[in-house]
Design a protein that fits this description.
The complex is a heterodimer.
Chain A (H helix, E strand, L loop, with lengths): L9 H31 E2 L8 E2 L3 H7 L2 H33 L5 H8 L7 H11 L9 H5 L10 H29 L3 H9 L4 H12 L1 H17 L2 H7 L11 H11 L3 H32 L1
Antiparallel strand pairs in A: 1-2
Chain B lengths: L5 H28 L4 H4 L12 H11 L2 H32 L5 H9 L10 H9 L3 H11 L1 H8 L3 H6 L16 H9 L2 H12 L3 H9 L4 H12 L1 H16 L3 H6 L8 H8 L11 H21 L1 H11 L2
Classes of the chains: A mainly alpha, B mainly alpha.
């Protein structure tokens, strides 16, 4: 890391990095610390300073059935949308990587959905999957009341999984394709010379070499499903019906800003923060390993 | 590869076409729905060819939602966030890579670790900070001033602690709610951008620095005349991802703006339809017209700058 060629002038260096450090302190570290403080204290009803209550807020959160419901929904959501995303995007990338005629067109279009904002995706899918208008409603004409995300919890859950995956498939596809194209052509050619067909090469050669990309995307997809899903849920289902799509991030928002219970919202934030930090940590370790192997 | 696999090729093409339909069909349906009148849109099954009411729907939703103001706000916010992120990432990385001081790795990690604290997990306290942006400074100052007294009280020496003077600094309030500053400033710090620039700066050969120094260039001169021209491609890559990121922000503007003239285009999506829980039937044709205009700017950036976008995305590894 030590470079021989550097400039002199500690003051200039400090002035250059100061703006970002100030922003990071004000908008990241202080709020994170504040969360911890709120999570450990309670605001008395008649004013005065916050009182230290230890882990009481966490106990309140963890003994709340509604909270465990949101944890369950979040984990199920992460598992479903991550598996759907990874399977579909890996298949698409493997197909496009074969470079049959016209593959540029597919590569070009597959990527589009990632540009679209989560709430716009949500609104589009709410229309497409609406029970009484739109595209999927044709099912209800053949089988009345089969599909209604406004009333049926599972239908609503399927809706947000599909909407989230549609966006994330585009993102994962780019990384899988880049990973496949980074595999040296000589290795594939050697395998072909040895008589391995297209599918055999894919299974025994390309997929194992793609493992690091796969792992990276696994972590990113889980994290995004915890964090970025807010826009989709807020527009399509609003956490309902009957809390069937009440993801953890959405519950923090509704407890904090609609219920105005900062202490409970802060305790939940700390739990979610711990989850995200753990996931990011896992990813750093993996990034380190990959650099090492290269 | 030079081999004939007609059956496999057929299935590959088939799968790729299905993929193409899955990726493009939702956008197409939104487009078709935005071109019909309301009774036609509400037909089951809906028509799959565009209708004749496109201009009427777009004009209606544009004036009804006041998209003129919202688009202007979104453009101002997204452009300034992008500019701010690029500028701040470039100078921070410059300081970390081209100067030698003891704390530089600490500073780098302080910035980089913020990747672990996405806005969504710290919304409530960040909102409190936005209501008074100087409160963290005030809080930190008071924490340091009263540190000894609090420590004594904590270990049980209440009497001694009470004897010490309570110090308090009061800074003026600086409210960021309903302002461009509030929409922009909290989004400007960037771990990804700093990381990307650091990687790029580390690949600059040391000889270039030596040569510049020998020619009598100071650090700022070197930054302006050597690094900035060299990093143009990087800058474009970063600019595309950051613009799309900033345009698509939803939760933060939703929290800190209440005045209609300060809201952004993406936020407006929520107001195009009644809330999901209280089911009045939405006016779908206008709602879909609104969705399409909101999703268009980032889509155009991606379509026309795809090369830069993909490059930025993959280099940054998030």
């Amino acid at each position: 890391m030590d470079r021989r060629a550097t400039f002199k002038g500690t003051w200039i260096a400090a002035a250059l990095i100061a703006p970002q450090l100030v922003l990071v302190f004000i908008f990241f570290y202080w709020p994170a610390a504040q969360s911890l403080y709120w999570a450990l204290t309670l605001e008395p009803p008649f004013g005065g300073g916050n009182q230290f209550v230890g882990l009481q807020n966490f106990e309140a959160v963890l003994s709340d059935k509604l909270y465990w419901n949101s944890v369950r929904v979040s984990i199920l959501f992460a598992v479903c949308s991550t598996s759907l995303t990874l399977i579909v995007s890996l298949m698409l990338a493997a197909f496009v990587d074969r470079r049959l005629s016209g593959y540029q067109v597919y590569r070009f279009v597959y990527f589009w959905p990632y540009a679209i904002a989560a709430p716009a995706v949500g609104l589009a899918f709410r229309f497409i999957f609406a029970p009484d208008a739109g595209f999927v409603s044709a099912i209800n004409k053949a089988f009345p009341n089969l599909w209604n995300p406004a009333l049926d919890g599972w239908d609503a859950f399927i809706l947000i999984v599909i909407a989230n995956s549609w966006k994330m498939i585009a993102y994962s596809f780019i990384f899988f394709l880049a990973g496949l194209q980074a595999i040296p052509r000589t290795i594939t050619e050697a395998a072909a010379m040895d008589g391995a067909g297209v599918l055999r090469r894919l299974w025994d050669l390309q997929l194992p070499l793609l493992a690091p990309t796969f792992f990276f995307l696994l972590v990113i997809n889980i994290t995004e499903s915890f964090v970025d899903s807010f826009g989709i849920v807020d527009i399509t289902t609003g956490g309902g019906p009957a809390r069937a799509t009440d993801l953890m991030v959405y519950k923090i928002y509704s407890d904090g800003f609609k219920g105005l219970d900062y202490s409970l919202a802060a305790a939940q934030s700390i739990v979610l923060m711990t989850l995200v930090i753990t996931l990011t940590f896992v990813q750093f370790r993996y990034v380190e390993r990959r650099v090492h192997y290269k | 590869m030079i081999e004939r696999t007609p059956i496999l090729d057929f299935f590959t093409h088939l799968a790729m076409i299905i993929g193409l339909v899955l990726a493009a069909l939702p956008i197409y349906i939104v487009f078709v729905a935005s071109t019909h009148d309301l009774p036609t849109v509400n037909q089951v099954p809906m028509p799959l060819t565009p209708g004749a009411d496109a201009w009427k729907n777009y004009a209606t939703v544009w004036t009804k939602s006041d998209f003129g103001t919202k688009f202007l706000n979104s453009f101002i916010v997204a452009s300034l966030v992008t500019l701010g992120k690029i500028a701040i990432a470039a100078i921070s990385a410059f300081s970390i890579v081209f100067f030698n001081y003891r704390l530089k790795m600490v500073f780098f990690w302080l910035i980089f670790v913020t990747l672990m604290l996405p806005l969504e997990v710290r919304i409530v306290p960040t909102y409190a900070v936005a209501a008074n942006a100087l409160s963290p400074v005030e809080g930190l100052a008071n924490l340091i001033l009263n540190g000894p007294a609090n420590l004594l009280a904590f270990v049980g020496l209440d009497g001694v602690a009470r004897a010490m003077p309570q110090l308090a600094i009061k800074l003026p309030e600086w409210n960021l709610l309903n302002s461009y500053t509030g929409l922009i400033l909290p989004l400007v710090a960037t771990a990804t951008g700093t990381f990307l620039y650091r990687q790029f700066f580390m690949s600059i050969p040391p000889e270039l620095v030596e040569a510049a120094k020998m020619d009598g260039a100071g650090p700022l001169r070197f930054f302006k005349d050597v690094l900035i021209p060299l990093s143009r491609t990087n800058m474009a890559a970063l600019a595309t991802i950051m613009f799309v990121y900033a345009w698509n922000q939803y939760l933060w503007p939703l929290l800190i703006t209440t005045k209609p003239e300060m809201t952004t285009a993406t936020m407006q999506l929520q107001k195009l339809v009644p809330g999901p829980l209280f089911g009045q039937p939405p006016v779908w044709n206008e709602a879909m017209a609104g969705t399409l205009i909101v999703m268009l700017p980032p889509l155009l950036v991606v379509v026309f700058m795809q090369r830069y976008f993909v490059r930025g995305l993959i280099q940054a590894d998030k």
